[in-house]
Amino acid sequence: MSRIFITGSSDGLGKMAALMLVTQGHQVVLHGRNKDRAAVAMAGVPGAETVLTGDLSSIAETVHLAEEVNKLGLFDAVIHNAGIGDKERSRMETTDGLSHVFAINSLAPYILTCLITRPKRLIYLSSGLHREGNPDLKDLAWKQRRWNGLQAYSDSKLQDVILAFAVARKWPDVFSNALDPGWVATKMGGRSAPDNLEDGSTTQAWLAVSNDPRALVTGNYFYHQKVKQCHPAAADQELQEKYLTECARISGILFPLS
Predict the structure, then answer these.
(1) Tens of pLDDT along 123-154?
(2) Which end of the chain is more exposed for a tag (fewer CB within 10 A), N or C?
(3) Annotated catalytic residue: which of 110, 153, 223, 243?
């Protein structure tokens, strides 16, 4: 039996993965951005261990969430599932002066990775759209660029793969991977999405707990339990270092080397 923390698990892919893992007999801790969403999460996943709250658009709340996770003890896996899509028509700014998309999709996984006691496995949800992401890492907060919601989303999902690969390189004792869940019918994906929701959650649950040799790997990008090609920039070590440096500068939290 494994113990897993899943961000953004009140609905969609996170909820489905939680249900799968609880059904398999694992201990699952859920997450919602506020008390109302946390209540929805617990009601939707009978058998979950507990639920934690934290608005991932806020650096301070994300730091507090990491502290609350650590109070619960060690975890075998953390699934960085929480995210928002590409539908914002204008730049929505957080209390920290960042775009919502970057803060939630990119910076929050970085902060939680740095501050949660290191688990055995880390799983980062990306998207096939990461291949359209801009790897130059200029203006991560979208303060100078003209807003483009689709580009901001694609950038953030490339950044998730960059983070996963950087962690895999720096922490060889951790299985760190990214995945594309497919275009599935969630609030983010929309009702017309063609892919199956259960298939979209299977890979993240599998990477979190399976002893299948195909899952006991690190520094890979998956789609439906198979390794796929990703944006080549994600494997660029210099780019990885630049990204970690930028996240540290923005958040005030250094990436731990040991």
Answers:
(1) 999 999 999 999 999 999 999 999 999 999 99
(2) C
(3) 153
Residue pair 180/173 in contact by the 8 Å Cβ criterion: no
**Mean pLDDT computed over 216-239:** 97
Per DSSP (E only), the strands in the chain are 3-6, 27-32, 50-53, 77-80, 121-125, 175-180, 221-223, 226-227
Residue 190 lies in a domain: yes
- Print the domain residue range for 180: 3-251
pLDDT tens digit sequence for 115-125: 999 999 999 99
Q: What is this structure's pTM?
A: 0.94
Please count the structural domains in the chain.
1
pLDDT of residue 87: 75
Whether 169 is covered by a domain: the verdict is: yes
**What's the CATH number where 105 sits?**
3.40.50.720
Q: Which residues of 2-17 are buried (b: 16+ CB within 10 A; e: fewer)?
A: bbbbbbbbbbbbbbbb
What's the confidence (pLDDT) of residue 189?
43
* Residue 258 belongs to a domain: no
Q: Is position 110 annotated as part of the catalytic site? A: no
Of 157, 221, 223, 243, which residue is the catalytic one? 157
Active site residue 243: no
C-alpha 218/C-alpha 126 separation (Å) is: 15
User: What are phi and psi for residue 178, nearest 5 degrees?
Assistant: -115, 160
